[in-house]
Design goal:
CATH superfamily of the largest domain: Aminoglycoside phosphotransferase (APH), C-terminal lobe
Number of domains: 2
Number of strands: 10
Strand content: 5-15%
Shape: globular
Largest sheet: 5 strands, antiparallel
CATH class of the largest domain: Alpha Beta
Length: about 375
Amino acid sequence: MTLNPEDAARRLVEWDLLTREAIVDGRLEMSGSARRNFNLRLDRGPDPGLFVKEPDPGLPEAVATVAAEARFYGFCDSEQKASAVRRLLPAILRVDGEAPLLVIELVAGSRSLWRECRDSSPGDVSSGWFEAVGNALGALHTTFRQPGLATDPRLGRLPKVPSFYLNLDRPRPHQLRYLSRGQLEVLEMAQSEPGITAGLERARAAWRVETLIHGDVRWENVLVVGRPRADAPIRLIDWELVQRGDPAWDIGGMLQEFVRFWLTGMSMRPDLETHRRLATARWPLETLRPAVRAFWAAYLEARRHDPGGTDDLLTRAIDYSAARLVLSAFEHHAEIDRASPLGVLLLQVSANIFADPERAAGAMYDLESPASR
């Protein structure tokens, strides 16, 4: 049975994770959402917050991904070789049931990286947070290259095929019924753009299974606290899509977020031509590039002694960033009946990156591959 906020609060009290006093004295704030999972965030003033997640028991895929997340937390808790990654995770307080309900402790005062950047002044997005994320992903990818760690039986049989997000242009018939009318329109636009379909095919073919990856890196899944610096105590959350795969997929997720953040800060008046719309960006792309470079430099430094190498990592990551922009267009239209200006822009930029990834690495992200130095 899918939880509601009252039922969740009752269970948390029964498990001694929440007091009745916290509910009645006004210190508790709840915010929830429901799609494949029921998600509930509880903020408790100066005390650490709680995040409750329960999959829809009628969706086997959702149950499987939440179960994989629970196994991953448990593995990192018990395996000394994964201690560098354990420091990046919030504490898991409860795993309950076969379609597991997870209760995760959130760092007091934490905010998502997206919210932190959104609330910043134009031109004042700090590079410190992005150095910390580069360090974190570098630690993850390097740690799970240790022999046998990513394939340890305690993790279960994690998938290793290309992320299903790379197949957005060819959904299965049963998936179509879950798409909104706006998403169906976006699908038609993506399928009719040869640059996007060819780019997705190229990205699928480039997939490598090298280490364990987060699988869904986005700024909403990075929690930050305190001052922005390279050693900031960030937390990576939402490990449902953890898998064995290509580290470039996680890098591509971070890169596309810079583009999405840039685009969402523009005026979306339907009468604006594209060049005029770009001029309205609250956070111009050139002001975000120092943070992009800080992230990439920190990631490379964190993987400096990784025997896997990084020579063509950026090439794959650029293509994957374009694929993630297609995903962002889909997600933006989850409850929209018609393609929006933002959705069209996301697809246009995706097609441009796919058309010339090498140019995009420099002109858009201001990055270069280690092999080109």
